[in-house]
């Protein structure tokens, strides 16, 4: 855990310097810093080699270990180690090696991750599910020793990482080496204020509609930038999808493999550009605006609960530098996929309704790779909400045949977001 505040220790100063950072550095660590952190042992995978493809522009893919513990309930360790509290909660142990194992819906599992951390006192971490994980309604969050918060890793943390996994809509099959979530490392407090977000948008548009920047008056800010829903949809008024109940098992290692019809039913808007959400059903919808993340910044979509508590939109997720960004100006932003669920009672949402919020942070340096063409990213310029596991609805002649589950080179194949 982090050490008491005070003068920086020689060890911490040396560790920070090994990343090429000044003692007062403030920002999100970029891809080149993450590689250095791996090289010097701040991020370690024991006998396994972390593959280069696991390093994203401002985050690192984390990977499932050999076993998943089916547990009686979720928990936080508070002033204890995770493994100590885990002992009283384990119902079953599931082997994730070789062909992997099936995780049932609505049941919590705890998986020790392969990666461990040895952070300096000036560096903290935060974790989020990968976009593909959220789009399958698989709920994940990281737990660390001696912590009272999910997904937040204290400055100076030294120890193991554990991932809670709860499939909510679909029964899924996972295996060792699969990446369901990501880690971001941060120095200081680099979050932009609302005024700074407004100034950034004036210089480098970060929100667009119809390939034109949203006007200053069109920005909605409150400790972050709000984004609305597109409920006009396509020519058939299709606005997204709703997860089918009691669908077949979905193997999360497969890409471009499954027919959408097996798992999803289309959602069409009513007259007036609105839909009514059925309680506790999972919906995938698109943002009304396009989001553009300049290379010197990173963003995070935060889960948003209206005061009424009837609606939850979007599992928190990272937006790396370069999302929706084209240096040649051929497009202005990419629309965001939004995961939406109503609670308790049917809930109406309307076109343009603000349902999620983006917070922005400065990068320490511009990353040496950007989301998009540099990485072959899955969701740049997306016009559909489905995850990479599904076949496209209108394949092009160049469409590759459905991929079989990848093998484990070294251990990790680094499938991006």
Task: Walk me through this protein's architecture.
Strands 14, 15, 17, 19, 21, 23 and 25 form a seven-stranded antiparallel beta sheet that branches. Strands 2, 4, 5, 7, 9 and 11 form a six-stranded antiparallel beta sheet that branches. Strands 1, 3, 8, 10 and 13 form a five-stranded antiparallel beta sheet that branches. The protein contains six helices and 27 strands. It has helices at 10-18, 31-39, 82-86, 131-135, 194-203, 260-263, and strands spanning 27-28, 43-44, 60-62, 67-71, 90-95, 101-103, 109-118, 123-129, 138-143, 152-153, 158-167, 172-174, 181-187, 207-209, 212-213, 225-228, 238-243, 250-251, 264-268, 274-277, 282-291, 297-302, 311-313, 317-319, 334-342, 347-350, 354-362. With 417 residues, it is mainly beta.
What's the gist of this structure?
With 417 residues, the chain is mainly beta. It contains six helices and 27 strands.
Oligomeric category: single chain
Total number of helices: 6
Mean pLDDT: 88
What is the 3D form?
globular
**Unreliable residue runs:** 1-7, 395-417
How large, in whole angstroms, is the Cα Rg? 21 Å
Number of strands: 27
Largest sheet: 7 strands, antiparallel
Alpha-beta content class: mainly beta
